Amino acid sequence: DWTPASFIESTVAMLKEKIGNDKVVLALSGGVDSTVAAVLLNKAIGRNLVCIFVDNGLLRKNEFENVLKNYEHMGLNVLGIDAKDKFYKALAGVTEPEKKRKIIGKGFIEVFDEEARKLKDIKWLAQGTIYPDVIESLSITGMVIKSHHNVGGLPQKMNLKLVEPLRLLFKDEVRRVGRELKITEDLIGRHPFPGPGLGVRILGDITPEKVRVLQEADHIFIQGLIDTGLYKEVWQAGAILLPVQSVGVMGDERTYENAVALRAVLSTDGMTADWAKLPYDFLGKVSNDIINKVRGVNRVVYDISSKPPATIEWE
Ligand code: XMP
């Protein structure tokens, strides 16, 4: 019978056996999967695991600082790398979604590769890949719907062996394992967040200013969900900055500013999803807060599309 405890026991034993005294590098994302993978490895091989956490400039508001602190408290060996400028430079003027994904994915690998090379004697690359990532990345119909950059690994030239302890698990199983490992609810209960981050939630080209605007709007939405207890009722939620300006009125002045879409969905694996029927009062309050507090936004809409035929992300 599968239980989190038996999974942990057998996986830690397997990792010890497989890795021995080798050194392992792992990319932490702040998400549940990579965190659970890191804690499992840490349990198996201790300080021989080195984690790298990259700020690509497309994380949520204060995410880099908060998560880094959290990891350090958990006793993980973490290197935090600020690479914001590199990503903003590479993304300037790029509007096509898959192109943005490729640039962000490539930038990430470059940063990770550069940092991993500075470490000595690394033999393994660990990843928090879970079963749905594996499936969605397989090209069954000969067509890749969206390229998920956390699958596929590091360039061959680094000559690392790959270890993916969560490869056979679904998200709910990963969370159960995480709770059993005593990872805080704060981290375990986190919604999934795409590797390319806010980069696929800013439709059109990305600028640091747009990132700032979206971070503020997203923060109001997410904090509102947390404060009202709705956060754990939904699978995933976030704000999307639309490349649409519309007319508004503020005091007695006419405004012409951006629209933000809010998206919240119910799902069990991300492969299908229903839009979340959030209370009107809640949506009204979040909308008011965003429009009043976030400079550059004068209209908020709520996305009521389900997957399929829509996807969870807008890009
Ligand atoms: P879609 O938009 O395809 O998203 O319905 C399904 C789930 O996958 C996440 N997602 C990504 N995750 N890299 C990732 O690591 C990506 O490029 C990517 N695109 C979408 C999305 O947030 C949702 O949880």
Count all strands and give the number: 9
Biggest sheet: strand arrangement = 3-2-1-4-5
The number of helices is 10
CATH architecture of the largest domain: 3-Layer(aba) Sandwich
Share of β-strand residues: 15-25%
The CATH superfamily of the largest domain appears as HUPs
Radius of gyration: 20 Å
Helix content: 40-55%
Bound molecules: xanthosine-5'-monophosphate
Overall outline: globular
- Please give the alpha-carbon distance between the first and last residues: 40 Å
Topology-level CATH name of the largest domain: Rossmann fold
The helix-and-strand class reads alpha/beta
The stretches of 5 or more residues where confidence is low (pLDDT under 50) are 139-153
What number is the mean pLDDT? 92
EC number: 6.3.5.2
Binding site for ATP: 29-35
Function: Catalyzes the synthesis of GMP from XMP.
Pathway: Purine metabolism; GMP biosynthesis; GMP from XMP (L-Gln route): step 1/1
